[in-house]
Write a structure and sequence with these properties.
This protein is α+β, with helices and mostly antiparallel strands and 228 residues long. 34% of the residues lie in helices and 18% in strands. The protein has a 6-stranded antiparallel beta sheet. The protein is globular, with a radius of gyration of 21 Å. The N and C termini lie far apart (53 Å).
Length: 228
């Protein structure tokens, strides 16, 4: 039975794109597992280096939160690394689209992503569910394990150099160290007076009052993303 042209094109697209996206997912998942192992090793090394040098209430703690999430608490900061399960392409104006690597092979643009968030550790400790966190970095990996990084303080392979390097442990160490360093330097600012000048009776009287007063490192200020 002859397959109509449009049906044949649909089937060909399903085969091509599903194969491509599965390869990208597998590479991203493998990278995320390597990230977990690297982060656990770094946490242990840093904790040993700090032993006896400061109050033990200051913690460096690794927490595996499942297949697609891992956390690192460093003192009052909590970094959450979350792998998205979908695969993404980029718009025509994105810098990766201008690279020879992608122009020579458009399917190289399809990437998985690991997001890096920064929260205050007390937000989770005291169940302050309204507190704000910040996306401080994103790691993209493609079908050939080529990668680039967007993020605050990140000096690793940027979008305009996509295709120049393959992700490995050494590259992950640099990404992780720069994310941790940025989070530690990204200090909590007091909320502008006019924003916090009025509160309601309910905010004081409810049992969950800890979650009623929103806290975030830049609450009331613009979070500048110009270097991402």
């Amino acid at each position: 039975m002859e397959v109509p042209p449009l049906r044949a094109r649909i089937l060909e697209t399903v085969i091509r794109k599903s194969t491509l996206k599965q390869k990208v997912f597998d590479n991203t998942f493998a990278t995320f597992n390597l990230l977990k192992d690297t982060l656990l090793e770094m946490a242990s090394e840093m904790d040993d280096a700090l032993d006896g040098k400061l109050d033990r209430r200051v913690r460096i703690e690794y927490r595996d939160r499942g297949k697609f999430e891992v956390q690192l608490q460093v003192a009052n900061d909590l970094l959450i690394f979350q792998m998205h399960t979908d695969v993404f392409d980029f718009g025509p104006e994105h810098p990766v689209r201008q690279t020879p690597y992608v122009q020579g092979g458009p399917e190289n643009a399809y990437c998985g992503v690991v997001n890096i968030y920064n929260f205050l550790s007390d937000s989770f400790k005291f169940n302050r569910n309204a507190d704000e966190g910040y996306l401080i970095g994103r790691l993209f990996i493609n079908r050939e394990r080529r990668f680039f990084v967007e993020g605050k303080g990140q000096t690793s392979v940027r979008a305009d150099a996509f295709g120049s390097a393959e992700i490995d442990r050494d590259a992950l160490v640099k990404v992780l160290e720069e994310a941790i360093a940025f989070a530690l330097d990204f200090d909590l600012l007091t909320v502008p007076y006019d924003i916090s000048a009025r509160v309601t009776v309910d905010q004081f009287n409810t049992k969950m009052d800890n979650s009623k007063f929103v806290t975030g490192k830049r609450l009331g200020y613009e979070f500048d993303t110009q270097d991402i």
